[in-house]
Hints:
heterodimer; A: mainly alpha; 10 helices; 0% strand; B: alpha/beta; Rossmann fold; 5-stranded parallel sheet; 4-stranded antiparallel sheet; 6 helices; 30% helix; 26% strand
Amino acid sequence: MSLIKAFVAIIRRDLILAVRRRAEIVNPLFFFILVVTLFPLGIGAQATLLQAMAPGVIWVSALLAAMLSLDSLFRSDFDDGSLEQMLLSPYPVAVLVLGKVVAHWLVTGLPLILIAPLLAVFLGLPDAAMGTLVKTLVLGTPVLSLIGAIGVALTVGLRRGGMILSLLVLPLYIPVLIFASNAVDMAAMGLPVSAQINILMAILCLALVLAPLPAAAALKMSVN
Amino acid sequence: MDSQQYCLQVNNLACIRDDRVLFEGVTFSLHPKQVLLLEGKNGSGKTSLLRILCGFREPDEGEVLWGGVAIDHSEFYRHMAYVGHLEGLKKELTVVENLKMGQALGFPGAMSIDQALAKVHLRGYDDTLVQALSAGQKRRLSLARLLIADALLWILDEPLTSLDKEGIDLVESIMIEHVANHQGMIVLTSHHDLSLPAVDVQRINLSSCH
């Protein structure tokens, strides 16, 4: 029971911190919106081209936005010593890490999901694909946070881990990108997408179970 | 209380950093009602030793045992609390929010948050953001976390830094009370002269452990 209390307390604390810092919520969201709006400006207002590119554009932008927000996952905890205290807790660190990832997703992933349909309309994505887009984001963005947690946990001890972090994490994001944008593509053409959705669900389940353990181990290495 | 069950034992510990041997052959055991004071020059490995005790660092040689079992496999983390150079406080959270977090991460101890705040003379600061506190107040707040946790062993890295005369007396009295009344044990480093009357204090000088 007290493990659940600790889990909830971590989520609660990180949400309070996010509200007090604000930039953490707003920055990735603005980045996401900006990148998506850059594409029509660069390509020109060719409706069919934009429509065809919409799934890929939205998903690549979501991926980059998620990656940029990753550093905030453990950075301040590492700097002020909260991370040390977390690692000394009698509770399994992996569970506490999962709590932090959940909070991080609520702060950075959820806003993307809410704004994505609007951007999809900008790009002219057919209505038929809207539901699938939201579904893929709901299943995919938590995976981005979970996989990202391993990468940040490994690099948080390095002063300039930013570049290494993207080299570590982006290749691991590729499966999510492929299946998610493909699903949205298929849905836009009116084809069934249950296979891709099922695979995304499987990836999410796998990441939920497998990501917190190596992330916890990597954090222990990083505070050394 | 079974003294074997709650015993910190360190055997032949060595720490090597960048080909320099910081210390080697450090052996001691600490039982309830005892204090261990680590002494030594700057860079003699005091903090490194404390971090090895916490399990943050692997010792290059030797072992750390709690109740005769390696700390990773024992109930060590259930019984210890650590205050290091970094206070582990969130500056955007209030005093009480920080302590509540500390409480949630461990097992609640004998003192309530209100009692602990009164003890470290921070009563009335409940809803103050930590970033508005002075260095000494932050230090006292991080020590208040020890009081609300149910920890037998305190590991303290320079607990007296940035405290004024009054603060030092306060922390000393808290340490004496922990050791004398709660069967506590403390491992600490300090540059200040500690006055812990009537307490069993072991001293180890790391500068001479080569």
